[in-house]
Amino acid sequence: MEKNRVYGERIPIHMENVQDLYNRRASLVEQKGWGAVSLGDEDASIASRAFDYDRDSLFPKLGVDSTSRVLEVGCGMGRWAKIVLPHCCAYCGVDFSEKMLKAAEKICENYAEKSKFFHLSASEAVNKEPSFYGGPFHCMILSGVCIYINDDELAHIFERLPVLAQPHCTICVKETTATDQRLTLNEFPSEALKSTYNAIYRTQEEYASMFRPLLAAGFTMDEQYFLPEEVGRKRAETNGLCTIFRR
Fold this sequence. Notes:
Elements: E1 5-7, H1 15-26, H2 28-32, H3 44-58, E2 69-73, H4 79-84, E3 90-95, H5 98-107, E4 115-119, H6 122-127, E5 137-143, H7 151-160, E6 165-178, E7 183-190, E8 195-201, H8 204-210, H9 212-216, E9 220-226, H10 229-232, E10 238-246
Parallel strand pairs: 2-3, 2-5, 3-4, 5-6
Antiparallel strand pairs: 1-7, 6-10, 7-8, 9-10
Helix pairs in contact: 1-5
């Protein structure tokens, strides 16, 4: 078994290495613009297509309006914040990369009065009570963050999300999944990133198990589909999957 590509076996990734990578990647925002690193690619056109899809095709499904409070877990440098902020009442973004958050605050400075960014891990974020954020949320977004979270922590996150939700709430989970069997990249040397890379690509069935606490809390899976190839970055072993829950 290749030590950098682990199939089937459940092994943890090193979260501190993921955090260090994204702190270093955040420095590229000033050099190349926010789009160049939003998906970890040097080709800004890839990120641009994904942004356009999220804004034009996915965001309208989330039911966000001028009364909506929105939480994003793993907000990065604010790509989703740019989409959401013109339409919502309040937006809270959390991320474990302080440098990414600083980039997000700068990108969203025109909406400073209704946006807040918190330097927290995903687990720390969901362990907060709604009052910490100013109240519960009508919409919660997890986009491209689950692959960087180990199993026990991710299971805990989905158990806690309903605590932060309004009685009527939409949760969107957009993530790259394994098409056949679980794949973990363990300190994988990446030419594109010029660094080692850590990520867990779970199967669709594994995510179904992770989602059970949402269903138990009264959410229903309203929609689940694989993303178009040009934005989902379909590869031989992975594909982008979007799941939308409503309560």
